[in-house]
Amino acid sequence: MTTLQSEPAGAMLRHWRERRGLSQLTLASRAGISARHVSFVETGRSHPSRDMLLKICEELEIPLREQNSILIAAGLAPAYPEHRLGDVPMSAVSDAITRILRSHQPFPALVVDRHWTMIDANDAIGALVEGCSPELLEPPVNVLRLSLHPNGLAPRITNLGQWRSHVLVRLRHQIGATADPVLLRLYDELSGYPCDDPDEPADSHSLVVPLRIRTDDGELSFLSTTTLFGTPLDVTVSELAIEAFYPADDATAAALHG
After folding, report:
1. 5 closest CA partner among 72, 55, 53
2. Is the separation of the CB atoms in 105 and 122 below 8 Å?
3. Nearest Cα to 200, choosing from 148, 154, 160, 144?
4. 239, exposed or middle or buried, with CB in 10 Å at 0-12, 13-18, 19+?
5. Tally of CB atoms within 10 A around 56
6. Confidence (pLDDT) at 202
């Protein structure tokens, strides 16, 4: 939970509206209510229904975890459950994750939570973490820290400047969307790691930023994709992401198949 949880529901909504760069009038138009009503909700002069709060949260694209916090602050029950992956209701999700990771072999794939903690991974992830310091591989493993830490993957990344910039930009966008203080602290930590070429631009001929890793058998080059669960109704599910790596050239594909 963020530090907003201790605030009144109206103040929390105002924070999210301002973070999204919306006026009260714009939000009111999107939510189908009056600007006066939005003002009254934010100041606590009006006590909106559960449905109205959820409608406003939807228009502000507030994460499910924070929507629950707002409802609790308004004296209402949370709208979304939060289960662990091992719980019975999550069996279908857990099975899907297992199948995805297994089917992605021999290419690396892993599952992370909202703080980039690794939840699961397939065996091919060894191609990425080989040579990393053992303490960085002790659970809970933060994959962003693992990739940019000087004792992690960073010394083997041949385009570290490009990759570091890509990671930090992506993390900034996530912080803007979630207002998560844990991610903000992680950003401060990662941006302080040493890098000889932090501002190295991406190749003008590339459409995406690859991850290039030096190995004993030569350089491996990967393209990464992120898979999210569509229309999640559980807090845990809404915060899971599957990071999959695909070979960016024939040599990498051959090395992994071999």
Report:
1. 72
2. yes
3. 160
4. buried
5. 26
6. 53
H or E element, residue 42: helix 35-43
Q: What is the pLDDT of residues 38-52, one digit of tens each?
A: 999 999 999 999 999
The four Cα atoms 229, 230, 232, 235 give a dihedral, to 10 degrees, of 40
What's the pLDDT score for residue 4?
A: 44
Residues of the chain where predicted confidence (pLDDT) is lower than 70: 1-5, 198-206
Per the DSSP assignment, residues forming a β-bridge with 22 are none
DSSP label of 45: S
Which run of H or of E encompasses 220?
strand 218-227
Query: Residue 257 carries which side chain, given as an amino acid letter?
Result: H
- Residue 15, classed as helix, strand or coil, is helix
Secondary-structure percent of the chain, ordered helix, strand, coil, rounded to 5: 50, 15, 35
Tokens of 22: 């919306």
Q: Model-level pTM? A: 0.90
Residue 200 has a pLDDT of 58
Structure tokens given for 119 = 């939840």
